Amino acid sequence: MNLEYFIAKRLVTTKKDKSSVSSPIIKIAITAIAIGVIMMIISVATGIGLQKKIRDKVSAFNGHVIISNHDDNQSQVSTVPISIQQDFYPTFSSVTGVTHIQAVATKAAMIRTEATVEGIIFKGVGNDYKWDNIAEYLVEGELPNMTNKLTDDVVISQYLAKRLNLKLHDVCRTYFIKQDNQGYNLRSFKIVGIFNSGFQEFDANFMLGDLRHVQKINKWEKDEVGSFEVFLNDFSQIEQKGQEIYKEIPPTYNSITILDKYYSIFEWLKLFDFNIIVILVVMILVSTINMIVALLVLILERTQMIGILKAVGASNWNVRKIFMYNAGHLIVRGLLWGNAIALVLLLLQKYFGLIKLDPENYYVSEAPVDINILYIVLINLGTIIICLLILIIPSYIITKITPVKAIRFD
Fold first, then answer.
1. Which residue from 354, 237, 353, 264 is spatially nearest to 54, judged by alpha carbons?
2. Closest Cα partner for 144 from 125, 159, 158?
3. Are 67 and 255 in contact (CB under 8 A)?
4. How many CB atoms are located within 10 Å of the residue 129 CB?
5. 92-126: b or e for each residue (b if 16 or more CB lie within 10 Å)?
6. What are the CA-CA distances from residue 168 to residues 137, 154, 156, 262 (Å)?
7. d(CA 317, CA 345)
8. Is the confidence at residue 162, as pLDDT, over 90?
9. What is the pLDDT of residues 214-251, one digit of tens each?
10. Rounded CA gap, 407 and 304, in Å?
11. Which among 102, 120, 247, 249 counts the fewest CB atoms within 10 Å?
């Protein structure tokens, strides 16, 4: 039997300890650890959740890597066509990790109603378009079918629909400026679906429809498109895969990752990593300080016991281990309460979306959470290890307690 653990366990379960001077200090220490763990788990879950949600939204509308003509590099509108007769299309087999590639084309336009006029970007897509990424954000209607003949069905954002006072199944008159800037082309589209991604930069601009409309208006051939959108299976390798893709495409084309295209957004997201680290450090520091105070009070309260143990032959390290076990018990109690409360709060947010956010500032309408068991385990292990390692220092005061003075201590 581990004698130090046995004594520590008796100290924890004794009724006298529950009514002692140290009792409120212990409760405060446990509460501080619980609050610290709650803050750490929630900050990690919401921080990573927000990063993933925004990242998924950007990639849903753009892919992970965009291949276009060099002349289109800084434009949201396709100006110079690319032939689909490429070695990398429809399957990008020369680069591992590519899951899908799709051909698209964009063109600036205006939607005019009786009440207002709104500038938009018409994004033409074909039968290879990955609608699964957009289906998540569909709030009304259905997705258009591009597999058959030319269709006038389009999907518009809820933001644009409200501004233009348009509803599902309405027909919207859309004006496309001709390439020579001489006049315009009029198209009437039927709204079959309305989406809301919560990402203002996309919702305020894009309407999705048949790629063949852009080809006809621009007088392109049937095998010409504006750009290719490439999807990867691992976002963490986007920079590496972006370089590999650039090397595999013809020299007349350019490729750009969404990290570069939306540089400001992803730089903003990196700030969350720093915020998470700051919260973790502060919470562990607060928990540790409270545990140090609790440990010192426990030692002071058990001074006579320390003297007796030393008198019967216990070494300083044996006595220190007793109090380290005691401190570890308090830490675990705080962790259990903290984990339970944090998981309940995260589950409530995940399934009920109690905390709302402003989409114009955060690109999402409610705070997303990512409940990752690995992160939670690491937070708990890190808290236990750091607290116990730091508590070794204040436990050194036990070595200064002599049996004679300790037994007579009152």
1. 264
2. 125
3. yes
4. 21
5. beebebbebbbbbbbbbbebeeeeeebebbbbbbb
6. 15, 10, 9, 31
7. 41
8. yes
9. 999 999 999 999 999 999 999 999 999 999 999 999 99
10. 5
11. 247
